[in-house]
Specification:
Strand content of chain A: 5-15%
Distance between the termini of chain B: 35 Å
Number of helices of chain A: 9
Largest interface: A-B, 19 and 12 residues
Largest sheet of chain A: 5 strands, parallel
CATH superfamily of the largest domain in chain A: Cobalamin-binding domain
Radius of gyration of chain B: 24 Å
Strand order of the largest sheet of chain B: 1-7-21-20-17-15-12-11-10
Shape of chain B: globular
CATH architecture of the largest domain in chain A: 3-Layer(aba) Sandwich
CATH class of the largest domain in chain A: Alpha Beta
Number of strands of chain A: 5
Number of helices of chain B: 16
Number of domains of chain A: 2
CATH architecture of the largest domain in chain B: Alpha-Beta Barrel
Order of helices and strands of chain A: HHHHEHEHEHEHEH
Oligomer: heterodimer
Number of domains of chain B: 2
CATH topology of the largest domain in chain A: Rossmann fold
Helix content of chain A: 55-70%
CATH topology of the largest domain in chain B: TIM Barrel
Strand order of the largest sheet of chain A: 2-1-3-4-5
Distance between the termini of chain A: 38 Å
Shape of chain A: globular
Helix content of chain B: 40-55%
């Protein structure tokens, strides 16, 4: 298979949402054929430029997936499957990209705040952001405020995402904002919040930079912030 | 049979235990022996007599014979009825496989409502602010006619959860007479739907013409017997316990023609039958068994359905009351009794007392759609579009019923729990637990694409406004714009040449 063919296959499998060979795709009949992970490994072995893999093999097909989702041809599981493909590919490509001097779109620290164990929404956002080319550092759920502040201090991420599903735990987001202010970190990081009880008004009230109702809005917001 | 509609095979919910079934059956036999049957058809009375029943003419010369049937006679005759047969259809994949020993549930339309209910959306402006607009449904009643029946048949062709078609509308065009009622009713149906078509007969004389029409469609007599695209309903019993003269003649004719027949009875608990479950079911079971026995005495092995339509009276005006618990109780018991005798069951669900679509209609319909599907009745009629008991057919309601029945069928699908699926699932759990996000969404895809996962309610509104009727109306408009699955023009020509009484306008589907 030529380098070009491998890239085309990566792109095809991103659209199919096949991370590994054992995965089923959007269409039937592909199980057992190489998935994105195997194909990226093959591309790297053939010394394909990692930037070409990212642009032609991952970014462009993800745009097609986004369009399919907007046309309601794809549902959330299809979108997530494709995003997971890109995430898995990025794990393999990261060291090569760094070597080539290519930077990610930025580090995004994400977590569900203290006292709240709900992490489905947060996980979806993490997968989608990784698929969109961000370096995601997921701290998990029920994360103490002090640990979040400490991570921001240590990792210096340009973005922090906070999630809460309870009206009782969303207030913790305000404590985190105060903590960032107190530690002199507030101007180093854009804070995005989300979760069922949160709103634009609440984001303004606690001084967060944005409220995102779902993963897609998070991607759009980040695009706007970095434009 | 290679192709047939799948319906849904359920694990039947049963409310009667084995003892109660036996007691009910014995009570029915006791009723058939004493007081027995009041029979207003001499040929039928003599048929019972020739098979060993005690028959005598009632004094007074009113043409009424009393029949006292011993249990053995009934059981022996009913035992000859087939447990399994096919109801045909214009498209082979739309045929129905009825098997009394398999609780495969089909849903279809029914009744012969006089009224077609048209839905419109009127715009209202909120008095308080003068700007907020709302679309509110309004309804107009139209008398049923052949054009509307044609539209109903076409609509039902496109309702994916409707498995068979019983004319839901009475045709009342000025040109329709008792003599041409049946041929026009059947033609309007058969020319607009490729599913099984069933109806009662207005006149016995129309039967040969209806059969001729069906033969021309399928390609001859033998083809019709193999693929009976039409079948008939006979309410041979007028409750309580009376065999009707002209309907008995129709039973003879249909059975002799070799076409499938529903022996239907519809007593009303509280007026023409006891309102108590035990009494109602004992009586209707007696009536249906006697009707089925009659078909088998005419022709052993005749394909027949156990047609149970027991209803309850409202106690304020003695009209039928459909959306109530007793309706389910009576009907579920009948399904069990049909299964006891290994005869496919024609049952009932989806009728309500509501006059327009809405919350009341949804409640009443779901109460019976769900329970009767759970009962495992093979052939559930009345399930689409009926309102105001059985007096109104509303196409928008039929669309809403289709959505509801789809969800009911999905709920009752056979569980996919096997050693193989469980091995896959355990593997999936292990795989997902090894990922950082432990999210199963990606693995929903295979089930989603295989159609194992249901969709959200088709007519949902995303905002704080109920738009169910508006969405259903727009779906109806989409269906109306599709072409009807008309018969081949050469077949239509042949039908018009040999079947008298067809309205000229129907040739063009009007």
């Amino acid at each position: 298979m030529s380098k070009k063919e491998v890239i085309e296959k990566i792109a095809f499998n991103v659209i199919q949402g096949r991370v590994e060979s054992e995965d089923e795709g959007f269409d039937e009949g592909f199980q057992g054929q190489p998935g994105v992970v195997e194909l990226v490994e093959e591309a790297l072995k053939e010394e394909t430029d990692p930037r070409t893999i990212v642009i032609d093999g991952l970014t462009k097909p993800m745009e097609i997936v986004g369009e399919k989702f907007e046309r309601e041809e794809y549902l959330i599981p299809d979108m997530l499957a494709s995003a997971e493909c890109v995430g898995a590919a990025m794990d393999l490509l990261s060291p090569h990209l760094i070597k080539s001097g290519v930077e990610s779109k930025g580090k995004f620290v994400i977590c569900t705040v203290a006292g709240d164990l709900h992490d489905i929404g947060k996980n979806i956002v993490a997968i989608m952001l990784k698929g969109a080319g961000y370096e995601v550092l997921d701290l998990g759920a029920d994360v103490p405020t002090a640990r979040i502040i400490e991570t921001v201090k240590k990792e210096r991420p340009p973005f922090l995402g906070l999630s809460a599903l309870l009206t009782t735990t969303m207030r913790i987001m305000g404590d985190i904002m105060e903590g960032l202010e107190r530690e002199g970190l507030r101007n180093t990081v854009k804070v995005l919040i989300g979760g069922a009880p949160t709103s634009q008004g609440f984001a303004r009230q606690i001084g967060a930079d944005a409220h995102c109702k779902d993963a897609f809005e998070a991607i759009h917001t980040l695009k706007a912030m970095t434009a | 049979m290679e192709a047939f509609r799948q319906g849904v095979v359920v694990r039947p919910y049963e409310r009667l235990n084995a003892d109660q079934l036996t007691w009910l059956d014995k009570a029915s036999m006791a009723i058939l022996e004493d007081p027995g049957i009041w029979c207003y058809n001499e040929r039928a009375a003599m048929l019972f007599k020739s098979h060993g029943a005690r028959v005598w003419e009632e004094p007074g010369g009113h043409g009424c014979w009393r029949i006292s049937c011993p249990a053995g006679l009934i059981r022996e005759a009913v035992g000859q009825a087939p447990s399994r047969f096919v109801l045909g259809a214009r498209r082979p994949e739309n045929r129905l496989l009825l098997d009394a020993e398999i609780p495969r549930v089909y849903f279809g339309s029914g009744s012969e409502a006089n009224v077609w209910l048209e839905t419109h959306l009127d715009k209202y402006i909120r008095a308080e602010d003068g700007t907020t607009e709302r679309l509110i449904p309004h309804y107009t009643e139209r008398r049923g006619n052949t054009a509307l029946l044609s539209r109903a048949a076409k609509l039902c062709e496109f309702l994916e959860h409707l498995d068979f078609f019983i004319r839901p509308l009475n045709i009342q065009d000025p040109e329709i007479t008792p003599d041409n009622h049946d041929v026009n009713k059947f033609f309007a149906s058969l020319n607009n739907i490729t599913k099984h078509v069933q109806a009662g007969l207005t006149t016995l004389e129309a039967l040969p013409h209806v059969i001729r029409m069906a033969e021309l469609i399928v390609g001859g007599r033998e083809a019709l017997i193999q693929n009976p695209i039409v079948s008939f309903i006979a309410c041979v019993f007028k409750s309580p316990m009376q065999i009707v003269e002209d309907t008995a003649d129709k039973v003879f004719a249909v059975v002799e023609a070799g076409l499938p027949l529903v022996i239907s009875s519809s007593p009303q608990g509280g007026s023409s039958a006891p309102i108590q479950e035990a009494g109602m079911v004992a009586q209707i079971h007696a009536e249906i068994l006697a009707g089925i026995a009659m078909t088998q005495m005419i022709k052993p092995g005749a394909p027949v359905l156990y047609g149970s339509v027991p209803v309850r009276a409202r106690l304020d005006d003695l009209h039928d009351l459909y959306g109530c618990p007793e309706f389910n109780q009576y009907n579920i018991d009948c399904v069990q009794l049909a299964r006891f005798y290994k005869i496919p069951c024609y049952s009932t669900a989806g009728v309500g007392d509501a006059k327009v679509p809405g919350i009341q209609a949804t409640f009443e319909k779901l109460l019976t759609h769900l329970f009767m599907a759970m009962s495992g009745a093979q052939y559930i009629h009345y399930a689409f579009g009926l309102l105001d008991r059985t007096n109104t057919f509303c196409p928008v309601q039929a669309i809403l019923d289709n959505e509801q029945i789809g969800k009911v069928k999905h709920t009752l699908r056979e569980p996919k729990v096997t050693p193989d699926t469980l091995e896959d699932m355990v593997g999936m759990v292990r795989k997902v637990m090894a990922t950082p996000h432990r999210l199963f969404a990606r693995h929903a895809r295979k089930a989603m694409h295989a159609g194992d996962i249901s969709s959200p309610f088709r007519f949902e509104s995303k905002a704080m406004e109920d738009k169910v009727i508006a969405h259903a109306l727009s779906h109806f408009d989409e269906i109306e714009n599709k072409p009807a699955p008309r018969l081949d023009p050469s077949v239509v020509d042949a039908i018009y040449e040999s079947v008298p009484g067809l309205l000229p306008g129907l040739r063009q589907g009007r």
